[in-house]
Specification:
This protein is mainly beta. 7% of the residues lie in helices and 43% in strands. The strands form five sheets. It has a 15-stranded mixed β-sheet with strand order 3-5-8-11-14-17-20-23-26-29-32-35-38-41-42, sandwiched between helices. Strands 4-6-9-12-15-18-21-24-27-30-33-36-39 form a 13-stranded parallel β-sheet, with no helix packed on it. The chain starts with 5 loop residues before the first helix and ends with a strand.
């Protein structure tokens, strides 16, 4: 979706100068930084911000944001690059419509904050009631982690882009689209962002939210918390999930992200609908790599596609629980540890109408099943996966199972119904007439056994 119409581009003074990394280039940059009137941009320096990393710039930046949104369409806001702007409490952007916040090369540093709470309800920057907006390039860092803050969050907003933003070390969620009532915010893209060292990386409970091409890395094994716990994650913790698609989310796309060494799950989803998780690389998380459905009481996820992901060395690579209409197809999953008891793909309690097809799996543990289906899961199909494991499958009889069992052959686990005849081939040469070598059980259309047909060796 185009961010600004021609009228607003002219108003912002960037026609001819261009936009580079979300910041005004050439004459536009010079005008904005020096506060030249008529450019359509407001510089935080014009409102008293210093950006030396020492001066408290909170009030000055808030004044600039308020001035930018005092008229509609709003003016765009520039954080001139090469500076560190110290803040001590939440910055709120309300009503940023048809405008940009540009911070390429600039840092917001949370230093000795006066605000914050224990439940992630405070934000370094929060956008509220903003529409057709863009936030680009800004870096947000918590320097001392003395209070609980989120990084950048969007609420009751639409048609926005968060692009190239970096968040480090805040004690709650790095980037989020979140409202008390799910699906209030819509049409938001979070792309090309980096989130490291946070409790939760990126989260949403919105509608039409796209989380694309980001990097989330907690690097939990290298933290002081991991050292204190002997390398075994447990609660309470400062590090949980990488990307979270929360209860009530609808039409969410999580695509092309890298998620590394989170305290719990890499990509954790709850009771969402119409979700696509595609082309992500998820490695080294202390709990699931990709979890569909979560464990909320009396809720299920509906309509989920998990495709083309690479998931390696998590505690369970792909886990489906309390979800229906789920497709798990074409993923590469691996457990490289011969001592870690963990599945590659698991379909657990509360899952129904699940198809697991065409995945590639490598299980180093000699006895733990690579693909597991719980006995209470229903209408599960496991077909044509390439699995290398000591125990490739552990599934109940109700599972429709088709797998490669040797060169050029498939084995069906369960009953095979042929409505238009059944052909059986045998490459072994017959040597003794009349010897029964196989029996084929025949079933009626209702599944009742009609007995066995003997197969004899013959000499042609």
């Amino acid at each position: 979706m185009e961010m600004m119409n021609r009228r607003n581009v002219l108003r912002a003074g960037i026609v001819g100068a261009g936009v580079v990394g979300g910041a005004v280039a050439g004459a536009g940059m010079a005008q904005a930084e020096t506060g030249n009137a008529g450019t359509g941009w407001i510089s935080v320096l014009d409102y008293g911000a210093v950006g030396d990393g020492t001066t408290d710039d909170t009030a000055a930046i808030q004044a600039a944001l308020n001035a930018a949104t005092a008229t509609q369409p709003a003016q765009s806001v520039l954080f001139p690059p090469g500076r560190t702007y110290r803040v001590r409490d939440q910055l709120t952007v309300r009503g940023l419509n048809d405008a940009v916040i540009s911070g390429s090369g600039a840092t917001l540093a949370l230093i000795a904050p006066t605000g914050g709470d224990d439940n992630g309800g405070a934000f370094v920057m929060k956008l509220v009631d903003c529409h057709r907006f863009r936030v680009t390039g800004l870096s947000i860092i918590d320097t001392d982690r003395t209070k609980v803050f989120c990084g950048l969050s969007v609420a009751t907003s639409s048609s926005g882009v968060i692009d190239g933003v970096t968040v480090r070390d805040v004690r709650w969620t790095g980037l989020g689209v979140f409202d008390p009532n799910a699906r209030t915010s819509s049409d938001i893209t979070i792309t090309n962002c980096i989130v490291t060292g946070t409790r939760n990386g990126i989260s949403t409970n919105g509608v039409d939210v796209r989380i694309i091409g980001n990097h989330v890395g907690m690097y939990w094994p290298s933290t002081s918390e991991a050292a204190a716990k002997g390398g075994v994650w447990s609660e309470p913790s400062d590090y949980y999930d990488g990307i979270m698609v929360l209860e009530g989310s609808d039409r969410t796309t999580v695509m092309g992200n890298t998620v590394t060494e989170c305290g719990q799950g890499g990509i954790f989803t709850q009771a969402s609908t119409n979700l696509v998780v595609s082309g992500n690389t998820v490695t080294g998380n202390q709990l699931r790599g990709i979890e569909v459905g979560g464990q909320l009481v009396n809720t299920v996820a509906v309509g989920v596609t998990v495709t083309g992901n690479t998931v390696i060395d998590c505690k369970g690579q792909i886990n489906v629980i309390k979800a229906q209409d789920v497709t798990v197809v074409g993923n590469r999953v691996a457990n490289t540890s011969a001592t870690k008891e963990t599945s590659l793909i698991a379909v657990n309690a509360g899952a129904s109408r699940v198809t697991v097809v065409g995945n590639h799996g490598d299980q180093a543990h000699p006895t733990f099943p690579a693909v597991y289906v719980d006995t209470t899961a229903s209408e599960v199909t496991v077909s044509s996966n390439e699995v290398k494991a000591g125990v490739p499958y552990q599934v109940p009889a109700s599972t429709a199972l088709l797998y490669r069992s040797g060169a050029g052959q498939f084995t069906v686990g369960g009953q095979l119904f042929a409505t238009k005849g059944l052909g059986v081939g045998n490459s072994a040469t017959a040597t003794t007439p009349g010897t029964v070598v196989r029996k084929i059980e025949v079933f009626s259309s209702t599944g009742a056994s009609l007995g066995f047909i003997p197969v004899y060796k013959t000499i042609s």
